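Take a look at this chain, tokens included, and explain the fold to me:
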Amino acid sequence: MFFAGSSFGILQLFSSTLVGCWSDVVGRRSSLLACILLSALGYLILGVSTNVFLFALARVSVGIFKHTLSISRALLSDVVAEKERPLVIGQFNTASSMGFTLGPVVGGYLTELEGGFYITAFICFSVFILNAGLVWLFPWSEVKSCTRKNGLRPGKSRALSGKTEREAQDAAATPGAATPEKTRPPRAEVLAVLRDARTLMSSDMRDIFLARLLMAVAVLLYYSNFVLAIEERFGVRPKTTGYLISYSSALGALSGLALGPILRLYRHDSHAVLLRASALTALLLLLYSAAPSMGLVVLTSTLLAFSTAIGRTCVTDLQLRAGGARASGLLIGVGQSVTAVGRILAPLLSGVVQEVSPCGPPSLGAALALAAVLIMSHTRPHQGGIRSDALKSK
């Protein structure tokens, strides 16, 4: 049973990078459809599972292929202009956060019904099948048009539309059709993406991923003992703390709507916004750890919901700016793996420092966030690190 429970997180840690790289090679449409359908299969198996083996098999399928959000972010980075990308990804994060907020409410209600667990699993299966149908009906020809307009090479556009090399050659042979760039065989595409992966070890990208790891651990340390610390420090009942967490989650979901004005204020400089959001997060964690009253806790929780949500969007945009457009799936996948490592480290660190003081985890989080700020303040990544020149239209 331990394996069945922990397999999902472990598989997500290792599969996010591989699935992101795979989407760069085969195209967003094919990878997105495959991930949706195989995730749906996992929930279907979960709904009919009668023993631990089937339950574990379902978790394995979902753990490997449930990366639809990451591929969708990579797709958005492909089709929108670089200047608009943080705003669009922020709105996408708002929509997905609302789903994560409403999902547990609906799931909790359904599980109270007779056979509620199986009903919930079949509803998840049905939603994934519906999503697969929407992806299939998606106007991929318009995606191709937008990709060309935003300066990506036709080869990239072909990968997005899901066309094979033979289809591209047939289209080129059609009278009156525009002549595309020379396409490459799948093996060459794989080697190209692997060469791009090696460039992720550049100093700029290392600093970005290290800062992301530190900020992830810092924020997760804050959440790891929030309920226990509030109860111990102020005698607040868990029910009231739950309301506060729901309030903060709702604010975090809506914070994507405030990203547009903030980016315009800083002239669409994601590095500057990330630096200030991270500095604000460090300050708020420090204030929360020393808060003498619940009023200050509510204030810091409110501002943390905004600063952390904005920081997550900006660090994703900064990865894509520094790494270039070609390997956006790989970059987002590696970022998700880095965050998954943070989810593993945070509970371990929290358990150690909480033995000293209930204020220990947020205090350590403030120190880690400050370290991330120092790293980013001394590093301004060059844009388009992964062969971006080849992606620019003349």
